[in-house]
Every structure is written in structure tokens, then in C-alpha cells.
UniProtKB/TrEMBL annotation, chain A:
Domain PBP: 19-286
GO biological process: phosphate ion transmembrane transport
GO MF: phosphate ion binding
Gene (UniProt): pstS
Protein name (database record): Phosphate-binding protein
Automatic annotation (TrEMBL), chain B:
Gene assigned in the entry: pstA
Any single Gene Ontology cellular-component annotation: plasma membrane
Descriptive protein name: Phosphate transport system permease protein PstA
Record organism: Oceanithermus profundus
Record-annotated membrane-spanning stretches: 12-45, 65-91, 103-127, 133-151, 179-201, 250-268
Span of domain ABC transmembrane type-1: 66-268
Domain of life: Bacteria
């Protein structure tokens, strides 16, 4: 076995010598989609894009440390972060949206057949640790006719710096005064209660193993692993399950900002899912300012990759339960990508 | 009466020794059996020949991680082995050398540093200046982890050799370096290889120092200056995931890692004996 394996390795070496490799790191929220993108893109062009899902916080930090060609985050950079990049490296950071996703409340209650319904304030109280049992009257009130087991509630949250956490806490802060005051919004917050899991994968894994657990994760992790997820009451009062249509409804906004940094949570849309978000790839506008780039060929390869993602790549989104970008976001991204430079030269 | 009591006491003591041995062997046996049973189902042709599949898609394999483990660990062994051996020889053969005291201190301190700090060290010293994650930086982290183990093992082994061996060489007019190289080291071959293997086994199982150095790579790569995957990294990522197929493959990778170490151990020992 081993000898055959070595032979195989030796035979493969020459075949793999050529081709550009790009490295990226960040969000776990779009990881299943990005893995699909990059495997498809490799078959298409031979360019190898190595993406490691270390969390949005880590992605931004590695982009700042210039160890990767691109970062990825589901939380847009804050104004202070944008300024920090500009001060240190003299270049703007371009946000390239790639997909729309939904953060869903996932839970592990054996024997329930229909999805539970949650309201925003109820979710806030669950994650604050104020609702301690699954048969609490506040849950029962929203779910008439559902036989709730008397399990204790175990909260599962992220342990790493996470854009998913940012989206989730941003939503909870919009619907709960107490959440705003006690916990606040961020990629990592001081959780009042619960267990930490690393990445969307870790949270989904913990919830799967723990009866009575409630956590939050990107929709695809719930669907792929057959973990139950609940409907969330939106601002219009409707209980909405996350799916392609309700996420798209949440993203239908009128004044789309040119830098694409926009929050979609607590949408006023009638059928919109209230915890939806864009997810972004982050790159330096002046790519030569990032020491990870060793040549113009790499910069060109990154430009081509991003151009492909916002256009042809979008066809891969829906099979993995991410909504494709709305037309306005594609147009904004085209303009932003055209502004990318390597030593002052455009890359188109 | 007295004699019978002594025999009884003897038997009780022997029973305790057996019991102790059993208690020590039990967890090891349990781990081996459990890893084997959980992992053997994941080992198939694809596992050895394919790159990983995107999450949620069944199939895919560990080829990049298997290759990366070999490349990273062998580079680490080359670097750590050279430095560790040198340090060990200095401490054992030149006890009067002024560097010995600080060297021993460094070895002891390094031996107690958590592995993840080795990764941090390599991140600051190699990754940041070189502007990117690389297999080489992972090897540096693992080499630093190996050095104190190899150094101490080498020193112990050399100390056990009789001084008469060196005296015989010196009496023939050999310089000291020649005595060390041609007499002392060959005589201690077996022990030194054991030290190297111990260090390799320790390093081969570490994921923490590789997280921000070798970084991981979903494509097969032979470039030591680019990111590379490794079995412990894959085990770490796959084992905490919710995907059943990944968890199965994580067990498979764990089994493969154990088997690889056992095979290296066996081969190295056989080579030394010959």
C-alpha cells in the first residue's frame, strides 16, 4: 500500500508543478459554499484557491497581518477597522459580497416533527439564560399544540471571533433592550451563559450531540446535518422559516450602499427572514500593498476569481441554500472590482 | 510460619505489579482497539488518493494531509534532529564547556512550553517575515518542539557509555571530534534513534503548532514555502464538525497516524539493529 502510494506521489509531482495558488482565510458561515466555488474554479481554470475557515475575526486579522491574499467575513469592517487599514497600509479595503445567508436558531429536541416558532425577544431571553426549561410557558405560548419536553435549555454559542455571532447579536440587540445593554453586538461578546463551539461546524456539532441544546448557525449547516431549526417572527409579525425566498425578500432594499456594507437584520419586509446577511470577501484595493502578493499574475488571478464569483459562481449558491446576489449588489461589486489596482495598474 | 508469610507477601507484591502493569496497559489497549474499530471503515482507496470534498458532499480523501504530514515531519526531524543531537553531544561529551549550563536551562524550559506557543513562535519568526503561511514554518514549530526531547535523550544515552571507550580512542591519538563521531555516536546508535523516534512521535500528533504555520491546504501541495495540510490538522477540523462523513474520516486519519508511527518505529529499529 505504502509503496504504491509513494509511486503515485512521484507520478503526480510534475503534473502539479504549474499554476497559481491563492490563499484565503476567514468566515465559516460561507465555508461549504466557498469550498464548492474553489473546487469548481480549480476544475475550470487550474487556479488553486486554498481557503481555511478560521472564523471572520481571524480572517480580518490575517488580512491585516498580510499572510493571506484575501480575508472573508460576514461582519463588514467597522469604520475604525477601515481607518486602521488605511492608516497602516495606505489602501482601502474592498468588500466583495458573494452570497446571502441566514443565521437560524438550531435546537436538539428529539420527537418534535414541526419547526418551533421563536420571537426575537424570546430568543434574546433564551440566550441570556432567562428561559431555563423547554416547556417554559413563553415557548409554549408561541407553539400551541406542540408537546414540549421538560428538558433544561443548554445554550451553545461561538468560541472564536465570528461574523455569524455578529449577525446574531446584532439582530438580538435590535429586538431586545436588555440584550443591547447587557451583552451588546460584536464578533465575540461576553456570553451570559452557555458552551462555546469553534466555527459554525463546532456549534452545529455540539447542538447535534446535546439534547436540549439551542445554538445558531448558517442555514446550510442545519440542512446538511438534518438539525432542526426554528421559524423567527419578523418585524411584520409573521413567523418566517429561512429559505431562499425569505432571505431574498430581506435583501430587497432600496438604497444599496456602493461599498456594499449593509445590515439586513430585523428587516421590515413582509415576508423577509429577520436574521439574514451578506457575506463578504475582503481584499486590499491596492493589492501590491499586501505582501502576500508576489506578482501581478497573482493579483490578476484574484481579480478573475472574484469576477467569476459575483457572476458565474452565483449559479452554485442556491444548491447550497445560499441566495444569489441581487442585481444591485452585482453592479456595485463590478464597480468595486474595477477599482482594484496592482502597482497602479487596473486588472481587468 | 515465617517463611510461609514471606512467600505470601511476595505473592501479594507480584500481584500488585501485575495489576499495575495491567492498569497502565489498559488505556493504551483501549485507545488502539477503539481507534482501530472506528477508523478502519474509513480507509479505502479514495481516502489515500483523493483531495477532500467540499463539506456536505460525501467522499473525498486525505491525500494532501498524508503527503503534508510526511513533508512537514521529515523537515522538522531534519532540523530538530541536527540541533538536538548537537546540543546533546555538547552536554555529554564536553561537560566543561561554558555553554552547557544555559543550554540545559533552555532545554528544560523548552520542554515545558505548551506546543501551541511553538506555533506562535514560528508565526512571529517565520510566517510574518516571509509574508505567508508555509509548511516550512510548521516544520520550524515542530523542530523547536523536538529539540529538547532529542537533546535530553542523546545526553542520557551518551552518558551511559563507559569512559573507557573514549579513552581507548584518545589513546590511539584520535582528536576528540573523531572519537565522538566514530566511536561514541555509533555505540549509542540505538538509544539516539529511540530519542529521535520519541520526538517524531510527539511532534507528529500535534495540531496546535500547525494551525497558524502550516495552515492547511485543501489541494495537494509539495511546495514547502506554501501552506500544506497535515493529518493532525485534519483530525482537529473534522472531529469537531457535524458532518458524519468527516467524523468517520477523522477516525480514519487517527488510525493512519497511529499505524504510520508504528511502522516508522519498527523500520527504524530494524535498521539500527542491522
Amino acid at each position: 500500500m505504502l509503496r504504491r502510494f509513494f509511486w503515485l506521489v512521484f507520478l503526480l509531482v510534475p503534473a502539479l508543478a504549474a499554476g497559481v495558488t491563492l490563499n484565503g482565510a476567514g468566515a465559516t458561515f460561507p465555508y461549504p459554499l466557498y469550498a464548492k466555488y474553489f473546487s469548481a474554479y480549480h476544475k475550470l481554470t487550474g487556479v488553486r484557491v486554498n481557503y481555511q475557515s478560521i472564523g471572520s475575526g481571524g480572517g480580518i486579522r490575517q488580512l491585516y497581518a498580510q499572510t493571506v491574499h484575501f480575508g472573508a467575513s460576514d461582519a463588514p469592517l467597522t469604520d475604525e477597522q477601515v481607518e486602521a487599514f488605511e492608516r497602516k497600509f495606505g489602501t482601502a479595503v474592498v468588500h466583495v459580497p458573494t452570497a446571502l445567508g441566514a443565521v437560524v436558531p438550531i435546537y436538539n429536541l428529539p420527537g418534535l416533527s414541526t419547526p418551533l416558532r421563536f420571537s426575537g425577544p424570546l430568543l434574546a431571553d433564551l440566550f441570556l439564560g432567562k428561559v431555563k426549561k423547554w416547556n417554559d410557558p413563553r415557548i409554549a405560548e408561541l407553539n400551541p399544540g406542540v408537546k414540549l419536553p421538560p428538558f433544561p435549555v443548554t445554550v451553545v454559542h461561538r468560541s472564536d471571533g465570528s461574523g455569524t455571532t455578529y449577525v446574531w447579536t446584532e439582530y438580538l440587540a435590535k429586538v431586545s433592550q436588555e440584550w443591547r445593554d447587557r451583552v451588546g453586538v460584536g464578533k465575540s461578546v461576553s456570553w451570559p451563559t452557555g458552551l462555546g463551539g469553534k466555527g459554525n461546524e463546532g456549534v452545529a456539532g455540539l447542538v447535534r450531540q446535546t439534547p436540549g441544546a439551542i445554538g445558531y448557525a448558517e442555514l446550510v449547516y442545519a440542512v446538511q446535518n438534518k438539525i432542526a431549526y426554528g421559524a423567527v417572527q419578523n418585524r411584520a409579525g409573521k413567523f418566517v422559516l429561512a429559505d431562499l425566498a425569505t432571505v431574498k425578500a430581506a435583501a430587497a432594499i432600496d438604497d444599496f450602499p456602493t461599498d456594499t456594507r449593509v445590515s439586513l437584520t430585523d428587516t421590515p419586509a413582509l415576508d423577509g427572514y429577520p436574521v439574514a446577511s451578506f457575506t463578504w470577501i475582503l481584499v486590499y484595493r491596492d493589492l501590491d500593498k499586501n505582501r502576500a502578493f508576489k506578482s501581478k499574475a497573482e493579483a490578476k488571478a484574484l481579480f478573475d476569481l472574484l469576477w467569476w464569483i459575483v457572476h458565474d459562481g452565483q449559479k452554485l449558491n442556491e444548491a447550497l441554500h445560499y441566495a444569489a446576489l441581487p442585481e444591485v449588489a452585482v453592479r456595485a461589486s463590478e464597480a468595486n472590482l474595477r477599482a482594484l489596482r496592482y502597482r497602479g495598474e487596473p486588472l481587468e | 510460619m515465617n517463611l510461609r508469610r514471606r512467600y505470601l507477601r511476595d505473592r501479594i507484591m507480584v500481584a500488585f505489579v501485575y495489576l499495575g502493569t495491567l492498569v497502565v496497559l489498559l488505556p493504551l489497549g483501549f485507545i488502539l482497539v477503539h481507534v482501530f474499530l472506528s477508523g478502519v471503515g474509513a480507509l479505502n482507496w479514495d481516502f489515500f488518493t483523493k483531495p477532500p470534498a467540499p463539506p456536505g458532499e460525501p467522499g473525498g480523501g486525505m491525500l494532501p494531509a498524508i503527503v503534508g504530514t510526511f513533508v512537514i515531519d521529515l523537515m522538522a526531524l531534519a532540523m530538530g534532529g541536527a540541533l538536538g543531537l548537537g546540543g546533546g553531544v555538547l552536554m555529554a561529551e564536553y561537560p566543561e564547556h561554558p555553554l552547557n549550563r544555559p543550554l540545559r536551562l533552555v532545554a528544560n524550559v523548552l520542554g515545558g512550553v505548551p506546543a501551541i506557543l511553538m506555533g506562535l513562535f514560528a508565526f512571529v519568526v517565520v510566517v510574518l517575515p516571509m509574508g505567508g503561511f508555509s509548511a516550512f514554518s510548521g516544520s520550524v514549530a515542530l523542530a523547536v518542539l523536538m529539540i529538547p526531547i532529542i537533546m535530553r535523550a542523546t545526553e542520557e544515552v551518551l552518558r551511559m557509555l563507559p569512559w573507557e571507550l573514549r579513552e581507548a580512542g584518545l589513546a590511539l591519538g584520535l582528536p576528540r571530534w573523531r572519537v565522538t563521531l566514530s566511536l561514541v555516536l555509533p555505540a549509542a546508535k540505538g538509544g539516539i534513534v529511540t530519542g529521535l523516534l520519541l520526538a517524531l512521535a510527539r511532534a507528529a500528533g500535534e495540531a496546535a503548532p500547525l494551525l497558524f504555520t502550516a495552515f492547511g491546504n485543501s489541494f495537494l501541495s509539495f511546495d514547502p514555502l506554501g501552506p500544506m495540510d497535515s493529518l493532525p490538522l485534519k483530525i482537529y477540523v473534522y472531529a469537531i464538525s457535524p458532518y458524519e462523513d468527516w467524523i468517520r474520516q477523522a477516525w480514519g486519519a487517527a488510525l493512519l497516524l497511529v499505524l504510520l508511527l508504528m511502522v516508522t518505529n519498527y523500520l527504524a529499529r530494524r535498521a539500527v539493529r542491522r
